[in-house]
Amino acid sequence: MSRRESSALVWGRCEELLREYVESSFSTSPLPNPPLELPDFPAIQPTSSDSLVQQAVGLYAIDRAGFNQRLSAIVESTLPDYVNRNIDPDSTREKWMAKNTQDISERVISQMAWDWLSSALDEDSPDTDRWYLAVSLLIGFSLSGSDVARRDGFHLLTSIAMAKPPGSWSSELTGPHQMAWNPAVQAHHDNSPHPSGVMAAAAILDSMAMGASSQTEILPHWLEGLTVKGQLCSLLNVPNRLMASLERDSGKHTGVLVRGAVQLMAGWPGESRDILLAASQHDDQGARRELSSSLQRISSEDRSFALHLMDILLEDDDSDVRTLATTYLSSLVRTDFPLFAEKASAVLEKGDSRMTQRIVDSAMREYISMDSEDGSGLLPMAWMSSNESSRSRLTGLMIQQAEVSKRGFMKTARIIKDRDGEAYADLKERVLRRDVSLSDEMDD
After folding, report:
1. ∠ CA(48), CA(54), CA(60), 5° rounding?
2. Contact criterion met (CB below 8 Å) for 214 and 145
3. Which of 243, 265, 300 is the last residue of a domain?
4. How far apart are CA 47 and CA 132, in angstroms?
5. Mind listing the pLDDT tens digit for each residue in 8-53?
6. Cβ burial, residue 37 (10 Å; 0-12/13-18/19+)
7. CB of 383 closer than 8 Å to CB of 426
8. Quick check: 136 and 26 in contact, CB under 8 A?
9. Rounded-to-integer distance, Cα 261 and Cα 274, Å
10. What is the domain range of residue 286?
11. Rounded to whole angstroms, how far apart are CA atoms 392 and 399?
């Protein structure tokens, strides 16, 4: 395949996508008005999708040089190393391009949206025609649920909210935490959202909530990103959008919504708690698993709420959810020993080997070092509900217990013996195999 043929494939596919995306956006909802426009040249809202599509395709067709430039940059940045190492790199390159036509075409489309939006958000001479082309392309592209749209579209969305060309601004603070910071150079950035830009961004988010693919593949990730954007988070009503998205059931991406809610806790504690509590009872296992994994982070903001969620998740039907929640429970041994002993006792009584193993692996050594007598009786319960791996670890811990407190060790062995003779025989065999000096303490 010649280079001309692979380039032609991408060219043709880009035109197809351009038509599809512009048509899709126009038919989903009214296009938002441009944030910037000149008084002498007011924006003219497109009256039909056909005219907008023809305008977009026409602009695309006459800019073949722009297409070639975008294509060359994209190929150079994404081309795998093995292509250039091949004995015939040109042929291999063309085969790779043909095989990845869809992904390359989507990247070209993304760059076109970026360029058109840059013209539309030029403060000195905003191009409103480019605005409607760019925003229709962004919305239609994102409605498709493309990974490229998810990755590239977020910066375009926030640029619209700020009414600034993409790539011309940054929300990051400058200061001595940056290696290249120079105190002699004072950077002045106006990072205040633009009122009309916020309205346009809100309309785009509303459109994302209408699409079957975008509401699950795109919107959760964009909302998560907005939770750390301060003013934008408030102006775009992100907490309510997160809850609405969770209630709609965002498929495999519900865990992303949970992460976003956790990030909201510092600024919106009430709304965040409502979302996280809803996630704890959500039908999707991914949401509950992500929540269980986040209990430590939640605890740093609201310990009592984290404990409440832990109690709910420890009773979950999903084994992974329960095990992940047990990880947070195990951390309590270092921060609240009495509470750990109480909660761990209840968990070990369940006889769940995975939950037991998590406690044994993560907390039991520290527990024994703080209470060698095992006043709460956790060791016998752990032994009774342990699997092979956990019993091996517990054997070592009990031998260490005997070194510090023979009485505690003998009490542990006696309780196990009284509960289950077979379990005691296993304990005795394992202990004496490692330390025969404890034979007297385990004399039947």
Report:
1. 140
2. yes
3. 300
4. 11
5. 999 999 999 999 999 999 999 999 999 998 777 777 888 889 999 9
6. middle
7. no
8. yes
9. 9
10. 232-300
11. 11
**Same structural domain, 99 and 163:** yes
* Claim to verify: residue 211 and residue 239 sit in the same structural domain: no
Under 8 Å between Cβ of 35 and 164? no
**Confidence check: pLDDT of 2 > 70:** no
Is residue 382 in a domain?
A: no
CA dist., res. 308 & res. 339, Å (int): 13
Asked if 139 and 204 touch (Cβ cutoff 8 Å), the reply is yes
| CA nearest to 130, candidates 140, 148, 118, 142 | 118
CA dihedral 312, 318, 321, 323 (to 10 degrees): 100
Same domain, 127 and 2: yes
The pLDDT assigned to 89 comes to 84
The CA distance from 179 to 172, in Å, is: 14
Q: Coil, strand, or helix at residue 249?
A: coil
Instruction: Kindly state the tokens that stand for 340.
Output: 């750990």
Q: Is 41 helix (H, G, I), strand (E, B) or coil?
A: strand
Report the C-alpha gap between 94 and 2 in whole angstroms. Answer: 7
Domain count, the chain: 2
Buried b or exposed e, range 347-362, using 16+ CB within 10 angstroms = bbeeebbebbbbbbeb
Q: Report how far residue 209's alpha carbon sits from residue 203's, in angstroms, rounded to the nearest whole number.
A: 10
Residues 6 or more apart from 391 whose CB is under 8 A from it? 383, 426, 427, 430
Q: Residue 184: its pLDDT value, please?
A: 61
Residue 360 CA from chain centroid, whole number: 29
State the Cα angle at 136 between 131 and 142, rounded to 5°. 125
State which amino acid sits at residue 286.
Answer: G
1, 149: one domain: yes
> 379: part of which helix (H) or strand (E)?
helix 378-384
Two tokens, residue 355: 């939950």
Size (the chain), residues: 444
Give me the phi and psi of 38, to 5 degrees please: -85, 135
Instruction: Report the distance separating Cα 373 and Cα 66, nearest Å.
Output: 76
| Domain co-membership, 199 together with 241 | no
Mean per-residue pLDDT over the chain, rounded: 90
Q: What is the DSSP letter of 166?
A: T
Q: Are residues 254 and 208 in the same domain?
A: no
Residues 18 and 59 both lie in one domain: yes
CA 154/CA 156 separation, integer angstroms = 5
